Amino acid sequence: MSLLITDDKRVRTITLNRPDALNAFDEALYDATAEALRAAAEDPDVAVLLLTGSGRAFSAGTDLREMHARTTDPDFRPGKHGFPGLLDALVEFPKPLICAVNGIGLGIGATVLGFADLAFMSTTAKLKCPFTGLGVAPEAASSYLMPQLVGRQNAAWLLMSSEWIDAAQAKEMGLVWRVCEPDELMGEARRHAEVLAAKPISSLIAVKRTMTEPLRAEIDAARERENACFRDLMGGPANIEALTAFAEGRQPDFTALPAGW
């Protein structure tokens, strides 16, 4: 199964479970996660959602093989919800969302932290927003949420450099709330989740709504801007070079692209 779901003490734990693919999101995993978020939102017995990954990754982001197929295969068919549906579910999720970053987080495996109410990270984990390395634009309203979360200059580095950020850097930036040793990560995240889950669900929802409602219009606007840029860049020379280099097992060379790319 691509997702593992467990309930305990009003905390629902969703574990991304494609360890052989570093929990990268293919269309099926996007669909399953979106549906799991919506189910948790509607379940009156769930107070808090805890999201983590299996194996050595939190999530390696969008499955690049499917991204390549999207641009090259005329028969490619997107899922029912896909990436946009997952973002809709994250934006609308009304209850506390806690992320436990157990390993590498790439792309949506990093930008999802913009939607987390609390984020815990293993000392051995690392994060990357690889958009410029893929020749594309930011995603998941990260162009708005990351400056809000970590400040403009930290966000500029995160979104422009395509460089790895280790746990200490993530904590210093304010990208995550707590850094834990690997064998303590889930226990610490669960302990805090259970503290919240013991509170009235109606009150938790009210607190989150009053905190996030002022951001909704800006998130929607950021997604529209990002999607427009993504459409312009997807399948362009830089993106094709990046995906071809990935398929060929080499580093991309953007220096030989046409002027402006």
TrEMBL record:
Keyword terms of this UniProt record: Isomerase, Peroxisome
UniProt xrefs under Pfam families: ECH_1 (PF00378)
TM annotation in the entry: none
Protein name: Enoyl-CoA hydratase/isomerase family protein
Major localization listed first in the record, in broad terms: other
Gene3D superfamilies, A to Z: 2-enoyl-CoA Hydratase, Chain A, domain 1
Organism from which the protein derives: Rhodococcus oryzae
Subcellular location(s) per record: Peroxisome
UniProt cross-references to InterPro entries, sorted A to Z: ClpP/crotonase-like_dom_sf (IPR029045), ECH/Chromodomain_protein (IPR051053), Enoyl-CoA_hydra/iso (IPR001753)
